């Protein structure tokens, strides 16, 4: 689920290939965007005038959010699209495919600007190369990850390889998650050995932390840098961890709730735009935290019988709003402190 930059609308994925664009103030549906296959991701453009959706088929689609009509069908991958990213200017997009390629598109005309073969397919091994992509804040670089080649930083204009990040170990170079810092100085990756922080210019390893000190290599659910500084949020296992890169200091935020004898994990987390609040969701509830004090400000539970899957933060007219979609394709709107 994604919040529009204005804070007055949201886009959420429903079942059977449907994306709903809704009014966050009145809770009404504005548009229903229908697809022929299941939708796996939706992103909002910086101006809020368009959204791009990624489906389980081979395409990505751009939609006009005022009319709800489709604008572009981006189909250039030989296999399914694994990821999609929007450049900060809103004038270009990147798609990563299971064919090991990254394609840069003009967001207005749909013209293919650039093709990068980041991880060539290996037909004899009969394996695909999942290619995920994130764009740097300056829009001049992007990082690819998810393949057996680790993570790579590329020039977004020429397609030249800038830096190869030696993620993981010789046994596994695959990075499951990746994040770029607010100023573009650092890249964080999560792989089998654990969390690794890289200098985005030189490719040098700056800091690392073993996966086994953080619940095991399969327990992380995502990485996210803070909007204005070099703090990193790592969530998964039974808690969220905040790592201050300059000092190396760790802060743990627990969100443990027992289901029988097993604690639930943090399945989703989101940081407010001002970096003041954090929302964590563990499937049964969402918790709102204040970073300065470490206090849990609120516990938000879905309607009876519903499970909260994810949360998102937005600031609108002095209010922090929590939009929490649950397992039943409904959206719950919360006003916090």
Task: Please outline what is shown here.
This protein has 337 residues and is mainly β. It has strands at residues 2-3, 9-13, 18-23, 29-34, 39-44, 50-55, 60-64, 70-74, 81-86, 92-97, 101-106, 112-117, 132-135, 141-147, 150-155, 161-165, 175-180, 186-191, 194-199, 205-210, 220-225, 231-236, 239-244, 249-254, 258-259, 262-263, 268-271, 277-281, 286-290, 296-300, 313-316, 319-325, 331-335. 41% of the residues are buried.
Biggest sheet character: 4 strands, antiparallel
Number of helices: 0
Tell me what portion of residues adopts beta-strand conformation: over 45%
| Mean pLDDT level | 80
Instruction: Report the end-to-end length measured between terminal Cα atoms.
Output: 21 Å
Helix content: under 10%
Oligomer: single chain
Class by helix and strand content? mainly beta
Low-confidence stretches: 256-263, 303-330
Strands side by side in the biggest sheet: 1-2-3-4
What gyration radius follows from the Cα positions, in whole Å?
A: 19 Å
**Tertiary shape:** globular
- Care to count the β-strands? 33
């Amino acid at each position: 689920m994604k919040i529009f930059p204005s804070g007055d609308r949201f886009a959420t994925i429903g079942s059977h290939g449907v994306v709903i664009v809704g009014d966050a103030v009145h809770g009404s549906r504005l548009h229903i965007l229908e697809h022929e296959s299941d939708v796996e991701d939706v992103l909002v453009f910086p101006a809020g005038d368009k959204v791009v959706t990624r489906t389980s088929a081979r395409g990505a689609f751009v939609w006009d959010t005022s009319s709800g009509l489709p604008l572009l069908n981006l189909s250039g991958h030989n296999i399914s699209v694994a990821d999609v990213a929007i450049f900060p200017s809103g004038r270009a997009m990147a798609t990563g495919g299971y064919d090991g390629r990254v394609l840069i598109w003009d967001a207005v005309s749909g013209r293919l600007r650039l093709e990068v073969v980041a991880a060539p397919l290996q037909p004899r091994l009969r394996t695909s190369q999942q290619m995920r992509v994130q764009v740097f804040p300056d829009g001049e670089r992007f990082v690819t990850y998810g393949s057996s080649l680790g993570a790579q930083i590329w020039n977004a204009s020429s397609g030249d390889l800038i830096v190869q990040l030696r993620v993981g170990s010789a046994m596994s170079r695959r990075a499951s998650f990746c994040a770029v810092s607010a100023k573009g100085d650092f890249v964080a990756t999560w792989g089998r050995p654990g969390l690794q922080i890289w200098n985005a210019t030189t490719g040098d390893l700056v800091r690392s932390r073993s996966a086994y000190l953080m619940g095991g290599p399969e327990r992380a659910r995502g990485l996210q840098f803070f909007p204005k500084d070099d703090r990193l949020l790592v969530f998964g296992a039974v808690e969220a961890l905040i790592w201050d890169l300059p000092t190396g200091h760790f802060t743990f935020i627990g969100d443990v709730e027992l289901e029988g004898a097993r604690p639930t994990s943090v399945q989703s987390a989101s940081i407010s735009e001002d970096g003041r609040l954090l929302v964590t969701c563990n499937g049964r509830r969402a918790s709102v935290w204040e970073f300065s004090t470490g206090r849990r400000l609120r516990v938000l539970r879905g309607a009876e019988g519903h499970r909260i899957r994810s949360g998102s933060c937005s600031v609108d007219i002095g209010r922090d709003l929590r939009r929490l979609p649950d397992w039943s394709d409904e959206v719950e709107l919360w006003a916090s402190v």
